[in-house]
Amino acid sequence: MKRTITCVEDLRALAEKRVPRMFYDYVDVGSWTESTYRANTADFQRILLRQRVARDLSRRSVASTMVGQDVAMPVAIAPTGLTGMQHADGEILAARAAKAFGVPFTLSTVSICSIEDVAEGTDGHPFWFQLYVMRDRKFVQRLIERAAAAGCSALVVTLDLQISGQRHKDLKNGLSAPPRLTLLNLLNMAGKPRWCLGMLGTRRHTFGNIIGHVDGVDNMTSLAEWSSQQYDPALSWEDIAWIRRLWKGKLILKGIQDVEDARLAVASGADALIVSNHGGRQL
Question: How far is Cα of residue 185 from the mean position of the Cα atoms in its chain?
């Protein structure tokens, strides 16, 4: 039966029905008590638009520019890890949709489809790449070089992953690398035939930007061992200066919430800032 989608809530309800619980909960979750996650929704609901009337609206437009790029409206698709587990080849499809609409798409470091997959799947159309700064700086440098080679128009550096926020739902669902295929998880997946058929029809099931690109990481087990050591509490503005020297394109810093940090970000050479608390999923 064809569904009529009228709003984002319709899409959320459809995703909850079609996507296995462990992957749906991965995106619809906050860390720890989820208080920041809930506060985000409440804060946005308090933002209202001022209504004016008897104004000439015949030439209205929401078209704008972002970091020098023409956009249909001043928004971008935010980086979301594991999009390719929400839907087969999800990052490629999302990038194509963003291209068709005329807004930037941001690919996550922990995407399922790789930088090269998305570039090929969008005929080289420029997209943004989100970077996690891990302890393995050689890998970070290679990621930056790969993003440049793929023609990414901006690098989005996330600053609030020095430690990982615990997400209780992920622990309960057994979402790990590789996922725990418990009887409950297998039964839940079996009840999502559309999702299963999609996954059977694609070769992209792992972290395409990482596996095969890190020395000694060639499967999900070795990825888990490597990832557990990669959060870097020593991340500093000196690292941002290093990235600024490596990356010649537009640099966007994500995770800013403090005025002094905003000043430091500008001083570091950032072209734009994203005021963000990681969707309430992190600190």
Answer: 24
